[in-house]
Amino acid sequence: MRQVPLAERLRPRTLEDFSGLEQLDRAFVQQVRAGSGRIPSAILWGPPGSGKTTLAKIIGSSYECEFVELSAVLSGVKDVREVVDRAKMQPKPTLLFVDEIHRFNKGQQDAFLPHVEAGTIALIGATTENPSFYLTSALLSRCRVVVLKPLGSEALERVCARGEAQLGCSLEPSGRALLLEACGGDGRRLLNLLEAFADSVGGKKASASEDDVRAFLSNSGLAAYDRDGEEHYNIASALIKSLRGSDADAALYYGFRMLAGGEDPRFLIRRLVIFASEDVGNADPRALQLAVSTLQAFELVGLPEGRIPIAQCIAYLATAPKSNRSYVALNRALAAVERAPNAQVPLHLRNPETGLMKSLGYGKGYVYPHDQPNGYAPGVEYMPKGVPGQPFYEPSDRGNEKTIKERLAWLGQLEKKS
Fold it and tell me: Strand locations in 153-269, DSSP E?
């Protein structure tokens, strides 16, 4: 006999039993609870285990309708057309639920439009990906986007309590807290972990200790990270912003969460190299040296030891003085090049490679800085005439750039005296 997984056995059947209901759009919840009028077409967007499929089925049971379920992984336009053909023959309205709807391409998504528009079907799509990136604007204009969030601690507590009661097992509060923390707001994952834990201890009914749960979790491979989806970009963004905000602990957490989730360490190190130049810059030029050395060290030793220089680099970058003035200077210079792409190089900066060039004044009047006091030749113009947006580089008062700023001020004084 097929054994139904615990998560499926405990799937809520009504809105009242749905965990996280308080986080949903109130107007949408009231509409579903009433179960009258036209069935709303909606895109349910949320992380795994937030209740998208459960909510879709509850919507289906709230209305007098034919509920049809498809998976975008296994289905195509042909299946959608078959559903539409049957819907036209049904006296009751048809609600089509498409799981992982983001996997349909633009053409497949367009196949829904006339039928949703005409009311032949109501469409509920579930996706873990940002709809604005993966779904067409035409489809989104016909559907309400309902955002489901990871389950909070109270909701997870209720889910876990139901699971323990169903399995006949009991966890000590500290052990339960570990399990709740490990599931990352994913209710289905929590129940799967609880069921697997109960199996691992032989379904014993005695209270399971924190040590029991910790030992189980140590071999569970729990990193929640999607190398190709939105979470990839969310965590990478959080890493950079934590580095920029000088929070070494948060940066280390996000960096090693990426690695634990299977990210290529070279991708992480490349981000560190870019950050070292863009956000630390000349406030601490050693940051870029360390980031490049981190890549070399990783290529030399590999994993797991390669994590050590990565940790060193993350901690250094987070605590280093910050300046983006070189990056700002880059953008200013690029804008100037775009506005003045053909500004003429001053004659005194051109090398007189031939006699003709010398006769035309190439190199005439050039002053060699090394022959001047202080290694600087005041009064020499290096920038072509007519180039806008200067100055490009304006060093900050932070770290090594304070010294650079002082030197530029000193050079400015020499200019005034010349």
Answer: 170-171, 207-208
